[in-house]
Amino acid sequence: MTLNDLAPLIPLMVIAVSSVIIMLGIAFYRSRAFSGLLTLAGIAVAFITLFGVQGTRQVTSLLILDDYALFYIGLILAASFVVALLSSDYLEGRRENIEEFYILLLLSTLGSSVLAASTHFVSFFIGLEILSVSLYALIAYTRNELNIEAGVKYLVLAAASSAFLLFGIALLYGETGTMEFSRMSSGISAQGINKGMLLTGFALVLTGVGFKLAVAPFHMWTPDVYEGAPAPVTAFVATVSKGGVFALLLRYFIQVDMHAYPSLFGAVAFIAVASMFAGNLLALLQKNIKRILAYSSIAHLGYLLVAFLAGGVMRVTAVTFYLVAYFITTLGAFGVVTMLSGKERDADAVEDYQGLFRHRPWLALIFSAMLFSLAGIPLTAGFIGKFYIVAAGAGSALWLLVIMLVINSAIGLYYYLRIIVVLYAQPGHSEVSAVSSLPLTGSLVLVLLTVLLLWLGVYPEPLIEMIHRMTMRF
Amino acid sequence: MPTAFLPEEYLPIVIFMVIILAFGLGTLAVGIVLRLRRPYQEKLLPYESGNPPVGEPRYRFSVRFYIVAMLFVIFDVEAVFLYPWAIVFDQIGLYAFVEMMLFIAILVVGYVYAWKKEAFRWD
Fold first, then answer.
1. Residue B85 within any structural domain of the chain
2. Nearest CB neighbour to A20, from listed B106, B116, B117
3. Nearest CA in chain B to A97
Protein backbone atom coordinates (compact mmCIF):
# COMPACT_ATOMS: atom_id res chain seq x y z
CA MET A 1 0.00 0.00 0.00
CA THR A 2 1.36 3.39 -0.96
CA LEU A 3 0.23 6.97 -0.50
CA ASN A 4 -1.16 6.80 -4.01
CA ASP A 5 -3.54 4.07 -2.83
CA LEU A 6 -5.01 6.38 -0.23
CA ALA A 7 -6.54 8.74 -2.79
CA PRO A 8 -9.51 6.51 -3.74
CA LEU A 9 -10.21 5.92 -0.05
CA ILE A 10 -10.84 9.61 0.62
CA PRO A 11 -14.67 9.25 0.72
CA LEU A 12 -14.39 6.58 3.42
CA MET A 13 -11.78 8.56 5.31
CA VAL A 14 -13.90 11.71 5.29
CA ILE A 15 -16.70 9.81 7.02
CA ALA A 16 -14.32 8.30 9.58
CA VAL A 17 -12.60 11.61 10.31
CA SER A 18 -15.87 13.49 10.77
CA SER A 19 -17.01 10.94 13.35
CA VAL A 20 -13.73 11.39 15.26
CA ILE A 21 -14.03 15.19 15.11
CA ILE A 22 -17.59 15.07 16.41
CA MET A 23 -16.45 12.87 19.28
CA LEU A 24 -13.68 15.32 20.15
CA GLY A 25 -16.14 18.18 19.85
CA ILE A 26 -18.57 16.53 22.26
CA ALA A 27 -15.79 16.04 24.80
CA PHE A 28 -15.23 19.78 25.09
CA TYR A 29 -18.44 21.46 24.06
CA ARG A 30 -21.78 19.80 23.50
CA SER A 31 -23.71 21.30 20.67
CA ARG A 32 -26.57 19.72 18.80
CA ALA A 33 -26.15 22.06 15.86
CA PHE A 34 -22.41 21.41 15.60
CA SER A 35 -22.78 17.61 15.60
CA GLY A 36 -25.72 17.63 13.22
CA LEU A 37 -24.22 20.05 10.72
CA LEU A 38 -20.82 18.38 10.79
CA THR A 39 -22.48 15.04 10.09
CA LEU A 40 -24.37 16.45 7.12
CA ALA A 41 -21.24 18.23 5.89
CA GLY A 42 -19.14 15.08 6.29
CA ILE A 43 -21.60 12.98 4.31
CA ALA A 44 -21.92 15.66 1.64
CA VAL A 45 -18.14 16.04 1.26
CA ALA A 46 -17.72 12.27 1.08
CA PHE A 47 -20.41 12.15 -1.60
CA ILE A 48 -18.66 14.85 -3.66
CA THR A 49 -15.27 13.18 -3.34
CA LEU A 50 -16.79 10.01 -4.82
CA PHE A 51 -16.71 11.78 -8.19
CA GLY A 52 -12.98 12.34 -7.83
CA VAL A 53 -12.20 8.63 -7.90
CA GLN A 54 -11.20 7.81 -11.45
CA GLY A 55 -11.60 4.39 -13.00
CA THR A 56 -11.29 1.12 -11.11
CA ARG A 57 -8.93 1.27 -8.19
CA GLN A 58 -7.99 -1.84 -6.25
CA VAL A 59 -6.64 -0.75 -2.86
CA THR A 60 -4.61 -3.65 -1.42
CA SER A 61 -6.50 -6.91 -1.77
CA LEU A 62 -9.17 -5.74 0.67
CA LEU A 63 -11.08 -2.99 -1.07
CA ILE A 64 -11.96 -2.09 -4.63
CA LEU A 65 -13.29 1.28 -5.69
CA ASP A 66 -14.92 0.57 -9.05
CA ASP A 67 -18.03 2.16 -10.51
CA TYR A 68 -20.20 -0.44 -8.82
CA ALA A 69 -18.77 0.27 -5.36
CA LEU A 70 -18.91 4.03 -5.94
CA PHE A 71 -22.55 3.83 -7.01
CA TYR A 72 -23.54 1.86 -3.93
CA ILE A 73 -21.48 4.05 -1.59
CA GLY A 74 -23.21 7.05 -3.11
CA LEU A 75 -26.60 5.46 -2.51
CA ILE A 76 -25.67 4.62 1.09
CA LEU A 77 -24.39 8.14 1.74
CA ALA A 78 -27.53 9.70 0.28
CA ALA A 79 -29.72 7.50 2.48
CA SER A 80 -27.68 8.35 5.57
CA PHE A 81 -28.02 12.02 4.74
CA VAL A 82 -31.80 11.65 4.67
CA VAL A 83 -31.78 9.71 7.95
CA ALA A 84 -29.60 12.37 9.60
CA LEU A 85 -32.02 15.08 8.47
CA LEU A 86 -35.06 13.16 9.68
CA SER A 87 -33.57 12.27 13.05
CA SER A 88 -32.48 15.78 14.01
CA ASP A 89 -36.05 16.84 14.76
CA TYR A 90 -37.14 13.41 15.92
CA LEU A 91 -34.52 13.12 18.66
CA GLU A 92 -35.25 16.58 20.06
CA GLY A 93 -36.78 16.16 23.52
CA ARG A 94 -36.65 12.37 23.45
CA ARG A 95 -33.50 12.08 25.53
CA GLU A 96 -30.62 14.25 26.60
CA ASN A 97 -27.20 13.99 24.99
CA ILE A 98 -28.35 13.33 21.46
CA GLU A 99 -25.01 14.35 19.96
CA GLU A 100 -23.55 10.84 20.09
CA PHE A 101 -26.30 9.64 17.78
CA TYR A 102 -24.45 11.24 14.89
CA ILE A 103 -21.17 9.49 15.70
CA LEU A 104 -22.94 6.15 15.60
CA LEU A 105 -24.78 7.09 12.42
CA LEU A 106 -21.53 8.02 10.67
CA LEU A 107 -19.78 4.87 11.84
CA SER A 108 -22.51 2.57 10.63
CA THR A 109 -22.55 4.42 7.31
CA LEU A 110 -18.82 3.81 7.11
CA GLY A 111 -19.32 0.10 7.82
CA SER A 112 -21.93 -0.21 5.11
CA SER A 113 -19.72 1.63 2.61
CA VAL A 114 -16.81 -0.68 3.39
CA LEU A 115 -19.12 -3.62 2.63
CA ALA A 116 -20.02 -2.17 -0.76
CA ALA A 117 -16.33 -1.87 -1.64
CA SER A 118 -14.89 -5.04 -0.14
CA THR A 119 -13.40 -7.85 -2.19
CA HIS A 120 -12.00 -9.86 0.68
CA PHE A 121 -13.54 -11.73 3.58
CA VAL A 122 -11.56 -9.71 6.10
CA SER A 123 -12.86 -6.34 4.92
CA PHE A 124 -16.30 -7.94 4.61
CA PHE A 125 -16.27 -8.97 8.25
CA ILE A 126 -14.78 -5.69 9.51
CA GLY A 127 -17.36 -3.68 7.57
CA LEU A 128 -20.17 -5.85 8.90
CA GLU A 129 -19.00 -5.46 12.49
CA ILE A 130 -18.56 -1.68 12.24
CA LEU A 131 -22.09 -1.56 10.89
CA SER A 132 -23.68 -3.89 13.46
CA VAL A 133 -21.93 -2.65 16.58
CA SER A 134 -23.06 0.91 15.89
CA LEU A 135 -26.55 -0.36 15.11
CA TYR A 136 -26.92 -2.04 18.52
CA ALA A 137 -26.54 1.33 20.18
CA LEU A 138 -28.59 3.21 17.58
CA ILE A 139 -31.56 0.86 17.96
CA ALA A 140 -31.63 1.30 21.74
CA TYR A 141 -30.85 4.98 21.51
CA THR A 142 -33.93 6.64 22.98
CA ARG A 143 -33.92 4.14 25.84
CA ASN A 144 -37.55 3.34 26.36
CA GLU A 145 -38.59 -0.21 27.07
CA LEU A 146 -39.29 -1.16 23.45
CA ASN A 147 -36.00 0.34 22.28
CA ILE A 148 -33.90 -1.59 24.71
CA GLU A 149 -35.71 -4.84 24.01
CA ALA A 150 -35.14 -4.34 20.29
CA GLY A 151 -31.50 -3.42 20.84
CA VAL A 152 -30.80 -6.49 22.94
CA LYS A 153 -32.59 -8.75 20.46
CA TYR A 154 -30.55 -7.34 17.64
CA LEU A 155 -27.35 -7.66 19.66
CA VAL A 156 -27.89 -11.32 20.51
CA LEU A 157 -28.99 -12.37 17.03
CA ALA A 158 -26.36 -10.33 15.20
CA ALA A 159 -23.66 -11.84 17.38
CA ALA A 160 -24.98 -15.33 16.66
CA SER A 161 -25.12 -14.67 12.94
CA SER A 162 -21.57 -13.32 13.00
CA ALA A 163 -20.50 -16.62 14.52
CA PHE A 164 -22.14 -18.51 11.62
CA LEU A 165 -20.50 -16.21 9.14
CA LEU A 166 -17.05 -16.56 10.69
CA PHE A 167 -17.27 -20.33 10.75
CA GLY A 168 -18.36 -20.33 7.13
CA ILE A 169 -15.45 -18.07 6.19
CA ALA A 170 -13.08 -20.36 8.07
CA LEU A 171 -14.32 -23.41 6.14
CA LEU A 172 -14.09 -21.64 2.79
CA TYR A 173 -10.61 -20.45 3.61
CA GLY A 174 -9.62 -23.91 4.73
CA GLU A 175 -10.75 -25.43 1.42
CA THR A 176 -9.65 -22.79 -1.07
CA GLY A 177 -6.67 -21.30 0.74
CA THR A 178 -7.67 -17.72 -0.01
CA MET A 179 -10.00 -15.10 1.36
CA GLU A 180 -10.04 -12.96 -1.78
CA PHE A 181 -13.27 -13.20 -3.73
CA SER A 182 -11.55 -13.06 -7.11
CA ARG A 183 -9.10 -15.85 -6.33
CA MET A 184 -11.67 -18.00 -4.62
CA SER A 185 -13.19 -19.31 -7.85
CA SER A 186 -9.81 -20.58 -9.08
CA GLY A 187 -9.23 -22.09 -5.63
CA ILE A 188 -12.57 -23.85 -5.94
CA SER A 189 -11.85 -25.36 -9.34
CA ALA A 190 -8.53 -26.76 -8.11
CA GLN A 191 -8.10 -30.52 -7.82
CA GLY A 192 -8.87 -32.46 -4.68
CA ILE A 193 -11.32 -30.02 -3.22
CA ASN A 194 -13.82 -31.26 -0.67
CA LYS A 195 -17.23 -30.36 -2.12
CA GLY A 196 -19.06 -31.05 1.12
CA MET A 197 -16.85 -28.73 3.12
CA LEU A 198 -17.19 -26.05 0.46
CA LEU A 199 -20.98 -26.22 0.40
CA THR A 200 -21.13 -26.17 4.20
CA GLY A 201 -19.01 -23.03 4.09
CA PHE A 202 -21.30 -21.41 1.54
CA ALA A 203 -24.36 -22.39 3.57
CA LEU A 204 -22.95 -20.88 6.76
CA VAL A 205 -21.96 -17.65 5.01
CA LEU A 206 -25.40 -17.49 3.45
CA THR A 207 -26.97 -17.93 6.90
CA GLY A 208 -24.94 -15.05 8.33
CA VAL A 209 -25.74 -12.79 5.41
CA GLY A 210 -29.37 -13.93 5.37
CA PHE A 211 -29.78 -12.75 8.93
CA LYS A 212 -28.49 -9.30 8.02
CA LEU A 213 -30.80 -9.11 5.04
CA ALA A 214 -33.72 -10.43 7.11
CA VAL A 215 -34.82 -13.01 4.55
CA ALA A 216 -36.92 -16.01 5.53
CA PRO A 217 -36.18 -18.26 7.42
CA PHE A 218 -33.83 -15.80 9.19
CA HIS A 219 -36.40 -13.04 9.46
CA MET A 220 -37.84 -13.56 12.95
CA TRP A 221 -36.08 -10.57 14.52
CA THR A 222 -37.20 -8.06 11.90
CA PRO A 223 -40.70 -7.06 13.06
CA ASP A 224 -39.65 -6.72 16.71
CA VAL A 225 -36.58 -4.67 15.93
CA TYR A 226 -38.40 -2.48 13.40
CA GLU A 227 -41.18 -1.86 15.89
CA GLY A 228 -38.86 -1.15 18.81
CA ALA A 229 -36.25 1.01 17.12
CA PRO A 230 -36.79 4.78 16.82
CA ALA A 231 -38.46 5.47 13.45
CA PRO A 232 -35.45 7.10 11.70
CA VAL A 233 -33.21 4.26 12.87
CA THR A 234 -35.72 1.77 11.49
CA ALA A 235 -35.41 3.53 8.15
CA PHE A 236 -31.66 3.21 8.47
CA VAL A 237 -31.76 -0.50 9.30
CA ALA A 238 -34.11 -1.14 6.39
CA THR A 239 -32.04 0.73 3.83
CA VAL A 240 -28.38 1.40 4.58
CA SER A 241 -27.69 -1.79 6.48
CA LYS A 242 -29.37 -4.05 3.93
CA GLY A 243 -28.08 -2.13 0.91
CA GLY A 244 -24.44 -2.57 1.87
CA VAL A 245 -24.83 -6.27 2.57
CA PHE A 246 -26.74 -6.87 -0.65
CA ALA A 247 -24.12 -5.03 -2.70
CA LEU A 248 -21.52 -7.31 -1.19
CA LEU A 249 -23.54 -10.48 -1.75
CA LEU A 250 -24.03 -9.59 -5.41
CA ARG A 251 -20.34 -8.91 -5.93
CA TYR A 252 -19.36 -12.08 -4.15
CA PHE A 253 -21.65 -14.34 -6.14
CA ILE A 254 -20.68 -12.73 -9.43
CA GLN A 255 -17.02 -13.43 -8.77
CA VAL A 256 -17.69 -16.90 -7.39
CA ASP A 257 -20.09 -18.19 -9.98
CA MET A 258 -23.12 -19.38 -8.08
CA HIS A 259 -24.68 -21.09 -11.09
CA ALA A 260 -21.96 -23.73 -10.89
CA TYR A 261 -23.57 -25.03 -7.70
CA PRO A 262 -27.12 -26.27 -8.24
CA SER A 263 -27.64 -26.86 -4.53
CA LEU A 264 -26.58 -23.33 -3.66
CA PHE A 265 -28.82 -21.98 -6.40
CA GLY A 266 -31.67 -24.06 -5.02
CA ALA A 267 -31.07 -22.79 -1.50
CA VAL A 268 -31.19 -19.15 -2.60
CA ALA A 269 -34.31 -19.85 -4.67
CA PHE A 270 -35.94 -21.41 -1.61
CA ILE A 271 -34.98 -18.39 0.49
CA ALA A 272 -36.45 -16.07 -2.14
CA VAL A 273 -39.79 -17.88 -2.31
CA ALA A 274 -39.98 -18.31 1.49
CA SER A 275 -39.25 -14.62 2.03
CA MET A 276 -41.90 -13.51 -0.42
CA PHE A 277 -44.57 -15.70 1.15
CA ALA A 278 -43.55 -15.16 4.79
CA GLY A 279 -43.36 -11.41 4.31
CA ASN A 280 -46.60 -10.93 2.47
CA LEU A 281 -48.77 -13.44 4.35
CA LEU A 282 -47.63 -12.35 7.81
CA ALA A 283 -48.04 -8.69 6.91
CA LEU A 284 -51.75 -9.38 6.42
CA LEU A 285 -52.10 -10.12 10.15
CA GLN A 286 -50.45 -6.97 11.46
CA LYS A 287 -52.08 -3.89 12.95
CA ASN A 288 -48.89 -1.92 13.42
CA ILE A 289 -47.49 0.15 10.54
CA LYS A 290 -43.87 -0.47 11.47
CA ARG A 291 -44.48 -4.22 11.62
CA ILE A 292 -46.30 -4.15 8.28
CA LEU A 293 -43.36 -2.31 6.74
CA ALA A 294 -40.99 -4.83 8.35
CA TYR A 295 -42.79 -7.78 6.77
CA SER A 296 -43.04 -5.87 3.52
CA SER A 297 -39.26 -5.41 3.57
CA ILE A 298 -38.83 -9.16 4.02
CA ALA A 299 -40.97 -9.69 0.93
CA HIS A 300 -39.04 -7.05 -1.03
CA LEU A 301 -35.75 -8.75 -0.26
CA GLY A 302 -37.35 -11.92 -1.63
CA TYR A 303 -38.17 -10.10 -4.89
CA LEU A 304 -34.59 -8.85 -5.02
CA LEU A 305 -33.26 -12.38 -4.68
CA VAL A 306 -35.28 -13.41 -7.75
CA ALA A 307 -33.35 -10.86 -9.80
CA PHE A 308 -30.20 -11.96 -8.04
CA LEU A 309 -30.70 -15.52 -9.26
CA ALA A 310 -31.11 -14.43 -12.86
CA GLY A 311 -27.92 -14.60 -14.87
CA GLY A 312 -26.14 -12.12 -17.07
CA VAL A 313 -25.70 -8.38 -16.99
CA MET A 314 -29.42 -7.88 -16.54
CA ARG A 315 -29.37 -8.96 -12.94
CA VAL A 316 -27.04 -6.19 -11.79
CA THR A 317 -29.24 -3.64 -13.52
CA ALA A 318 -32.42 -5.08 -12.07
CA VAL A 319 -31.06 -5.44 -8.54
CA THR A 320 -29.51 -1.99 -8.51
CA PHE A 321 -32.55 -0.22 -9.88
CA TYR A 322 -34.82 -2.06 -7.49
CA LEU A 323 -32.59 -1.20 -4.55
CA VAL A 324 -32.65 2.49 -5.48
CA ALA A 325 -36.45 2.41 -5.69
CA TYR A 326 -36.64 0.47 -2.43
CA PHE A 327 -34.35 2.98 -0.69
CA ILE A 328 -36.43 5.95 -1.78
CA THR A 329 -39.72 4.30 -0.91
CA THR A 330 -38.66 2.94 2.47
CA LEU A 331 -37.06 6.20 3.54
CA GLY A 332 -40.22 8.01 2.49
CA ALA A 333 -42.56 5.65 4.32
CA PHE A 334 -40.55 5.71 7.55
CA GLY A 335 -40.09 9.44 7.06
CA VAL A 336 -43.87 9.89 7.29
CA VAL A 337 -43.95 7.72 10.44
CA THR A 338 -41.12 9.82 11.91
CA MET A 339 -42.85 13.09 11.18
CA LEU A 340 -46.12 12.04 12.78
CA SER A 341 -44.59 10.47 15.88
CA GLY A 342 -45.35 12.16 19.17
CA LYS A 343 -42.94 12.26 22.09
CA GLU A 344 -44.76 9.51 23.98
CA ARG A 345 -44.63 6.84 21.30
CA ASP A 346 -44.09 6.47 17.60
CA ALA A 347 -47.09 6.80 15.30
CA ASP A 348 -47.16 3.12 14.45
CA ALA A 349 -50.74 1.96 14.98
CA VAL A 350 -52.88 1.82 11.87
CA GLU A 351 -55.58 3.79 13.71
CA ASP A 352 -53.17 6.70 14.07
CA TYR A 353 -53.49 7.21 10.36
CA GLN A 354 -57.24 7.17 10.19
CA GLY A 355 -58.42 10.19 8.25
CA LEU A 356 -54.95 11.61 7.85
CA PHE A 357 -56.06 13.06 4.52
CA ARG A 358 -58.43 15.47 6.30
CA HIS A 359 -55.75 16.83 8.68
CA ARG A 360 -52.71 16.75 6.48
CA PRO A 361 -53.60 16.14 2.86
CA TRP A 362 -50.04 16.51 1.59
CA LEU A 363 -48.58 14.06 4.04
CA ALA A 364 -51.34 11.58 3.21
CA LEU A 365 -50.65 11.96 -0.50
CA ILE A 366 -46.92 11.41 0.04
CA PHE A 367 -47.58 8.33 2.15
CA SER A 368 -49.97 7.00 -0.50
CA ALA A 369 -47.30 7.50 -3.16
CA MET A 370 -44.82 5.54 -1.06
CA LEU A 371 -47.30 2.72 -0.48
CA PHE A 372 -48.19 2.60 -4.18
CA SER A 373 -44.51 2.30 -4.97
CA LEU A 374 -44.10 -0.53 -2.46
CA ALA A 375 -47.05 -2.27 -4.08
CA GLY A 376 -45.54 -1.67 -7.54
CA ILE A 377 -48.28 0.46 -9.10
CA PRO A 378 -47.31 2.20 -12.38
CA LEU A 379 -46.00 5.77 -12.38
CA THR A 380 -43.87 5.00 -9.33
CA ALA A 381 -40.27 3.84 -9.09
CA GLY A 382 -41.44 0.58 -7.49
CA PHE A 383 -43.24 -0.40 -10.69
CA ILE A 384 -40.20 0.08 -12.91
CA GLY A 385 -38.10 -1.81 -10.39
CA LYS A 386 -40.48 -4.73 -10.35
CA PHE A 387 -40.70 -4.65 -14.13
CA TYR A 388 -36.93 -5.03 -14.36
CA ILE A 389 -36.93 -7.90 -11.89
CA VAL A 390 -39.61 -9.75 -13.83
CA ALA A 391 -37.72 -9.06 -17.06
CA ALA A 392 -34.49 -10.37 -15.56
CA GLY A 393 -36.23 -13.46 -14.19
CA ALA A 394 -38.02 -14.16 -17.46
CA GLY A 395 -34.80 -13.58 -19.40
CA SER A 396 -33.19 -16.44 -17.49
CA ALA A 397 -36.33 -18.58 -17.75
CA LEU A 398 -36.89 -18.71 -13.99
CA TRP A 399 -40.60 -19.15 -14.60
CA LEU A 400 -41.51 -20.63 -11.24
CA LEU A 401 -39.87 -17.78 -9.36
CA VAL A 402 -41.47 -15.17 -11.60
CA ILE A 403 -44.92 -16.71 -11.09
CA MET A 404 -44.36 -16.69 -7.32
CA LEU A 405 -43.38 -13.05 -7.55
CA VAL A 406 -46.54 -12.13 -9.42
CA ILE A 407 -48.75 -14.03 -6.94
CA ASN A 408 -47.03 -12.27 -4.06
CA SER A 409 -47.39 -8.86 -5.62
CA ALA A 410 -51.12 -9.48 -5.69
CA ILE A 411 -51.17 -10.51 -2.02
CA GLY A 412 -49.06 -7.48 -1.14
CA LEU A 413 -51.47 -5.13 -2.84
CA TYR A 414 -54.10 -5.98 -0.25
CA TYR A 415 -52.34 -4.73 2.85
CA TYR A 416 -50.88 -1.66 1.17
CA LEU A 417 -54.31 -0.67 -0.07
CA ARG A 418 -55.77 -1.34 3.37
CA ILE A 419 -53.54 1.38 4.82
CA ILE A 420 -54.46 3.72 1.99
CA VAL A 421 -58.17 3.16 2.67
CA VAL A 422 -57.57 4.10 6.32
CA LEU A 423 -55.75 7.26 5.25
CA TYR A 424 -58.81 8.55 3.41
CA ALA A 425 -61.46 7.36 5.89
CA GLN A 426 -63.38 9.53 8.36
CA PRO A 427 -61.02 10.89 11.02
CA GLY A 428 -60.84 8.85 14.22
CA HIS A 429 -59.86 9.91 17.72
CA SER A 430 -56.14 9.62 17.78
CA GLU A 431 -53.77 11.94 19.58
CA VAL A 432 -51.04 11.27 17.05
CA SER A 433 -52.76 12.93 14.12
CA ALA A 434 -52.94 16.10 16.22
CA VAL A 435 -49.18 16.73 16.21
CA SER A 436 -48.96 20.50 16.30
CA SER A 437 -46.65 21.39 13.44
CA LEU A 438 -44.44 19.41 11.13
CA PRO A 439 -40.71 20.17 11.10
CA LEU A 440 -39.60 22.00 7.97
CA THR A 441 -36.50 19.94 7.10
CA GLY A 442 -38.44 16.70 7.32
CA SER A 443 -41.20 18.05 5.07
CA LEU A 444 -38.68 19.16 2.46
CA VAL A 445 -36.99 15.76 2.55
CA LEU A 446 -40.31 13.99 2.05
CA VAL A 447 -41.26 16.24 -0.86
CA LEU A 448 -37.86 15.60 -2.45
CA LEU A 449 -38.24 11.83 -2.00
CA THR A 450 -41.69 11.90 -3.56
CA VAL A 451 -40.45 13.89 -6.54
CA LEU A 452 -37.62 11.38 -7.00
CA LEU A 453 -40.07 8.51 -6.71
CA LEU A 454 -42.35 9.86 -9.42
CA TRP A 455 -39.47 10.98 -11.59
CA LEU A 456 -37.95 7.49 -11.57
CA GLY A 457 -41.39 6.04 -12.19
CA VAL A 458 -42.06 8.20 -15.24
CA TYR A 459 -38.61 8.85 -16.66
CA PRO A 460 -36.15 6.20 -15.43
CA GLU A 461 -33.79 6.42 -18.44
CA PRO A 462 -31.05 8.58 -16.85
CA LEU A 463 -30.66 6.24 -13.88
CA ILE A 464 -30.80 3.14 -16.06
CA GLU A 465 -28.18 4.64 -18.37
CA MET A 466 -26.00 5.26 -15.35
CA ILE A 467 -26.43 1.70 -14.06
CA HIS A 468 -25.68 0.33 -17.56
CA ARG A 469 -22.45 2.28 -17.73
CA MET A 470 -21.56 0.92 -14.31
CA THR A 471 -22.26 -2.71 -15.22
CA MET A 472 -20.37 -2.43 -18.52
CA ARG A 473 -17.12 -2.09 -16.64
CA PHE A 474 -17.91 -4.72 -14.06
CA MET B 1 8.03 -39.99 18.36
CA PRO B 2 8.61 -36.74 20.25
CA THR B 3 11.47 -36.82 22.73
CA ALA B 4 10.35 -36.63 26.34
CA PHE B 5 11.03 -33.34 28.03
CA LEU B 6 12.95 -33.97 31.28
CA PRO B 7 13.65 -30.71 33.03
CA GLU B 8 16.43 -31.95 35.27
CA GLU B 9 17.83 -28.46 35.76
CA TYR B 10 14.56 -27.47 37.36
CA LEU B 11 14.93 -29.86 40.29
CA PRO B 12 16.56 -27.26 42.62
CA ILE B 13 13.62 -24.93 41.96
CA VAL B 14 11.13 -27.63 42.88
CA ILE B 15 13.03 -28.31 46.10
CA PHE B 16 13.12 -24.59 46.76
CA MET B 17 9.33 -24.32 46.32
CA VAL B 18 8.72 -27.26 48.60
CA ILE B 19 10.88 -25.68 51.32
CA ILE B 20 9.05 -22.36 50.99
CA LEU B 21 5.68 -24.06 51.26
CA ALA B 22 6.77 -26.13 54.23
CA PHE B 23 8.26 -23.11 55.99
CA GLY B 24 5.14 -21.00 55.47
CA LEU B 25 2.65 -23.63 56.56
CA GLY B 26 4.95 -24.78 59.38
CA THR B 27 5.20 -21.29 60.88
CA LEU B 28 1.41 -20.90 60.79
CA ALA B 29 0.98 -24.34 62.37
CA VAL B 30 3.43 -23.52 65.16
CA GLY B 31 1.52 -20.30 65.82
CA ILE B 32 -1.82 -22.10 66.03
CA VAL B 33 -0.43 -24.71 68.41
CA LEU B 34 1.44 -22.38 70.74
CA ARG B 35 -0.61 -19.14 70.93
CA LEU B 36 -3.19 -18.24 73.57
CA ARG B 37 -6.80 -17.93 72.51
CA ARG B 38 -8.94 -15.45 74.49
CA PRO B 39 -11.41 -13.84 72.12
CA TYR B 40 -13.77 -10.99 73.09
CA GLN B 41 -15.90 -8.70 70.94
CA GLU B 42 -13.52 -5.78 70.36
CA LYS B 43 -10.80 -8.18 69.37
CA LEU B 44 -12.95 -9.87 66.75
CA LEU B 45 -13.95 -6.61 64.98
CA PRO B 46 -12.23 -5.85 61.68
CA TYR B 47 -9.35 -3.46 62.19
CA GLU B 48 -10.05 -0.04 60.66
CA SER B 49 -7.18 2.01 62.05
CA GLY B 50 -8.73 2.13 65.50
CA ASN B 51 -12.15 3.52 64.46
CA PRO B 52 -15.27 1.48 65.24
CA PRO B 53 -16.37 -0.10 61.93
CA VAL B 54 -19.40 1.44 60.14
CA GLY B 55 -21.87 -0.66 58.15
CA GLU B 56 -21.54 -4.08 56.61
CA PRO B 57 -18.35 -4.97 54.75
CA ARG B 58 -20.32 -6.72 52.01
CA TYR B 59 -22.42 -3.82 50.71
CA ARG B 60 -23.29 -3.52 47.01
CA PHE B 61 -21.63 -0.95 44.80
CA SER B 62 -21.70 -0.28 41.07
CA VAL B 63 -18.60 -1.50 39.29
CA ARG B 64 -19.80 0.14 36.04
CA PHE B 65 -18.88 -2.80 33.89
CA TYR B 66 -19.56 -1.11 30.60
CA ILE B 67 -17.22 1.79 31.24
CA VAL B 68 -14.54 -0.56 32.48
CA ALA B 69 -15.11 -2.70 29.41
CA MET B 70 -14.81 0.26 27.05
CA LEU B 71 -11.62 1.47 28.68
CA PHE B 72 -10.31 -2.07 28.54
CA VAL B 73 -10.97 -2.17 24.82
CA ILE B 74 -9.17 1.13 24.29
CA PHE B 75 -6.02 0.04 26.05
CA ASP B 76 -6.09 -3.66 25.33
CA VAL B 77 -6.62 -3.38 21.58
CA GLU B 78 -3.92 -0.74 21.48
CA ALA B 79 -1.49 -3.12 23.17
CA VAL B 80 -2.46 -5.98 20.85
CA PHE B 81 -1.59 -3.89 17.82
CA LEU B 82 1.50 -2.30 19.32
CA TYR B 83 3.35 -5.54 19.99
CA PRO B 84 3.54 -6.92 16.42
CA TRP B 85 4.13 -3.40 15.15
CA ALA B 86 7.08 -2.95 17.49
CA ILE B 87 8.61 -6.28 16.45
CA VAL B 88 8.64 -5.57 12.70
CA PHE B 89 9.12 -1.83 13.06
CA ASP B 90 12.66 -1.75 11.65
CA GLN B 91 11.48 -3.42 8.44
CA ILE B 92 8.50 -1.21 7.64
CA GLY B 93 9.83 2.13 8.74
CA LEU B 94 8.27 5.56 8.55
CA TYR B 95 5.03 4.51 6.89
CA ALA B 96 4.15 2.20 9.75
CA PHE B 97 5.15 4.87 12.22
CA VAL B 98 2.70 7.35 10.71
CA GLU B 99 -0.04 4.72 10.58
CA MET B 100 0.46 3.78 14.21
CA MET B 101 0.46 7.42 15.27
CA LEU B 102 -2.88 7.86 13.48
CA PHE B 103 -4.26 4.81 15.22
CA ILE B 104 -3.09 6.04 18.61
CA ALA B 105 -4.44 9.53 17.89
CA ILE B 106 -7.91 8.06 17.30
CA LEU B 107 -7.64 6.10 20.53
CA VAL B 108 -6.55 9.25 22.36
CA VAL B 109 -9.69 10.99 21.13
CA GLY B 110 -11.72 8.16 22.62
CA TYR B 111 -9.70 8.46 25.79
CA VAL B 112 -10.28 12.23 26.02
CA TYR B 113 -13.98 11.64 25.46
CA ALA B 114 -14.14 9.07 28.26
CA TRP B 115 -12.19 11.41 30.51
CA LYS B 116 -14.52 14.32 29.86
CA LYS B 117 -17.51 12.07 30.48
CA GLU B 118 -15.95 11.42 33.90
CA ALA B 119 -15.45 7.74 33.29
CA PHE B 120 -12.47 7.81 35.65
CA ARG B 121 -14.33 9.41 38.54
CA TRP B 122 -14.77 6.47 40.84
CA ASP B 123 -17.36 7.07 43.52
1. yes
2. B106
3. B117
